[in-house]
Amino acid sequence: MPFAYEHDWIIARPLILFAGAVTRRGIDFGPELTQLGVTKTDLGDPERRLPVRTVFAAYERLAEAISDDSATFDIFDHAPVGHGSLIDYVFLCAANLEEGLKNWERFWQVRSSCVQIGYDRANGFANVEIVVPDHFGPSSQFAFGFIALLCSRIEDIVSDTYPRFHVETSSKAPQQTSHFQEKLGSRLRFECERNRIRIPEQHLQLISSRADPSLFKIIEDAALAQLIDLRGRHSQASQIAATISQGLRTGNCSIDYVAGTLGMSPRGLQRNLEREGTNYRSVLDEVRRSIAQRYLVDTNRPINEIAQLLGFSDVSTFSRAVRNWFGIPPTGFRHRLQTAPGAGGLRHR
Questions:
Q1: Which pLDDT score is estimated for 85?
Q2: CA 147 to CA 191: how far, in whole Å?
Q3: Does 3 have pLDDT greater than 60?
Q4: Cα–Cα distance between 67 and 71 in angstroms, integer?
Q5: Cα–Cα distance between 225 and 100 in angstroms, integer?
Q6: Rounded to whole angstroms, how far apart are CA atoms 63 and 72?
Q7: CB of 90 within 8 A of CB of 101?
Q8: Which of 56, 69, 167, 233 is geometrically suited to a Cys-Cys bond with 343, CB 3.0 to 4.6 A?
Q9: Are 149 and 195 a contacting pair, CB within 8 Å?
Q10: What pLDDT, in 10s, does the model give residues 292-343?
Q11: Amino acid 236: pLDDT
């Protein structure tokens, strides 16, 4: 039975950057990526769309290959301008910092069908939130790279202005320490509610040295054309899995709730899933499995809290589910990962 969200994708560009950095360290990671289904063709096309689960798993494997679970920060902090292609330029060529941040929110969806960038202003700060859905499994390495890349672009505009921006991530701190972490110091906080960058509002009118209205118009037109081309391409199973993930946060993942949220009847929802070769029970189990994996790997949340968040009646029921999914109970699963080389060993069954 296929994964409910096997059609969710992200472009290969960031994975290519990470893989290139590992190669320059003289490390052969080819067999690792081959096991995940990543081919040389995939790594030769920056715009190629790869399954999100595959990309997240590849990041974790690459961090393990270099035995450094913090290096992702530095690799992406040093990514050259232009690495992000369209996303770099809709930001850097915009009229000012705020317009660039809004453009990230507006156009990031051409880079991924499910990872999102949000933007708002509150309490004297502009907030850039990186929304990485939990139901794709462990994602701390991807989040570290994404955060560092966006910070490097923001720094390109704000430079050494004060007060400085702050960074929050929902993942636990890596075991090693990167230059990026040392640079931000106490301005980088781990195990927060969300992944976000908080920028003092007084910086929002700053203008990039690369601001160019004529070039921006060309880039904006290209981005809008890509957005139009992407309309209506999300599978029903992917949308249902995402809604289940959201529902688990509020304690409601019933088929009635999910169907109502998506504007359909429970029977209609089941028929849509059947057409994609799956069913609601399988999708729910798959989402719970992936979120459990994400919380056990990326966070230090207590086992009983994870069980509650996933809607299990008690810890023993959750432990049986984890044993069924991964072959060992939650504490053993977490301990195995914490003692793996580089703290990145994510070889699950």
A1: 81
A2: 14
A3: no
A4: 9
A5: 19
A6: 7
A7: no
A8: 69
A9: no
A10: 999 999 999 999 999 999 999 899 999 999 999 999 999 999 887 665 545 4
A11: 80
Record the tokens describing residue 154, joined without a space: 């923001």
Percentage of the residues of the chain whose pLDDT score is greater than 90:
78
DSSP code for 79? P
Instruction: State how far the Cα of 256 lies from the Cα of 265, in Å rounded to an integer.
Output: 8
Q: How many CB atoms lie within 10 A of CB 154?
A: 23
pLDDT number for residue 343: 47
- CA 17 from chain centre, in angstroms, equals 16
CA 9 from centroid of its chain's CA atoms: 11
Q: Which pair of tokens denotes residue 176?
A: 């090693």
- Model pLDDT, residue 5: 54
State both tokens at 260: 């109502």
Burial class (CB in 10 A: 0-12, 13-18, 19+), 162: exposed
For residue 136, give both structure tokens.
Answer: 């794709």
Amino acid letter for position 254: S
Summarised one tens digit per residue, pLDDT across range 43-76 is: 999 999 999 999 999 999 999 999 999 999 999 9
Helix axes 280-298, 315-326, angle to 10 degrees: 90
What is the bridge-based pairing of β-strands 166-168 and 188-189? parallel
Question: What span, in angstroms and rounded, lies between the C-alpha atoms of 280 and 266?
Answer: 10
pLDDT class of 161 with cuts at 50, 70, 90: confident
Domains in the chain, start-ordered, CATH in brackets?
Answer: 71-230 (no CATH), 236-343 (1.10.10.60)
- Look at the block and give the residue holding tokens 């968040």: 309
